[in-house]
Design brief:
Layout: E1 5-6, H1 9-26, H2 39-61, E2 74-75, H3 83-87, H4 92-109, H5 122-141
Antiparallel strand pairs: 1-2
C-alpha cells in the first residue's frame, strides 16, 4: 500500500513534484512516439530534474526548528501513475525514466527523512541524487533515435461495405 501521508513538509513537496513530472512525461508526445524522444520533451524534462534538485537544495539550505509541527501529517494527495499507466508508455526511454521517478517517490515517501519535520538527511539525499543522475544519463542517451517501424499499438481500420468486405461466414 503506497504511503499517503508523511511528517516532513519538504518530502511531501518533493513527492508531489515527482508525481506531477511523471504525469507530464506519461502524457507527453514522446511517450507514444516509439523510438524517438522529442527534443522539446527532453528539454522540458531536464528542467524538471533541475527543479527537483533545486527544491532539495532549498529544503536543506536552512534547517528549520519546528517542534510544534513534529508528527503533523502532510497528505500526498496526488496519486502516482499506476503500473498500468507506466506500462502503456510506448517509448522505452520515457518508461525507464518514469520507473525511476516511481523509485524516487517510493524511496523518499518511505525514507527516514519522511519522519522529520523538514529537510532531507544526507543518506536519503545521496539516494535522491543517484536517481537524478541516473535519469539525466537516460535523458542524454535518449536523443539518439532508433528505427522501430512496427507500432504494435495500432489497430487496423475495419473494412466496411464494398466488395472487399467478408461476410460473417468468411465467404467473399
Amino acid at each position: 500500500m503506497p504511503v499517503s501521508q508523511v511528517s516532513n513538509m519538504d518530502i511531501a513537496g518533493l513527492c508531489d513534484r515527482v508525481t506531477v513530472y511523471a504525469r507530464e512525461l506519461i502524457s507527453s508526445q514522446s511517450a507514444f512516439n516509439g523510438g524517438f524522444f522529442l527534443e522539446a520533451d527532453r528539454e522540458r524534462f531536464a528542467t524538471y530534474l533541475d527543479r527537483l534538485e533545486g527544491f532539495a537544495t532549498a529544503a536543506n539550505s536552512q534547517p528549520l526548528d519546528l517542534p510544534k509541527i513534529h508528527n503533523v501529517g502532510y497528505s500526498l494527495l496526488k496519486s502516482f501513475p499506476t503500473d498500468e499507466q507506466i506500462e502503456a508508455v510506448e517509448n522505452q526511454d520515457c518508461k525507464d525514466i518514469v520507473r525511476r521517478l516511481k523509485a524516487l517517490w517510493v524511496d523518499m515517501s518511505e525514507s527516514q527523512s519522511a519522519d522529520l519535520a523538514s529537510g532531507i538527511n544526507r543518506f536519503d539525499l545521496m539516494r535522491f541524487k543517484a536517481l537524478l543522475d541516473s535519469m539525466r544519463a537516460l535523458l542524454a542517451m535518449s536523443g539518439d533515435s532508433i528505427d522501430l517501424p512496427e507500432n504494435q499499438g495500432n489497430t487496423p481500420v475495419p473494412v466496411t461495405g464494398g466488395s472487399s468486405a467478408r461476410t460473417p461466414a468468411g465467404n467473399y
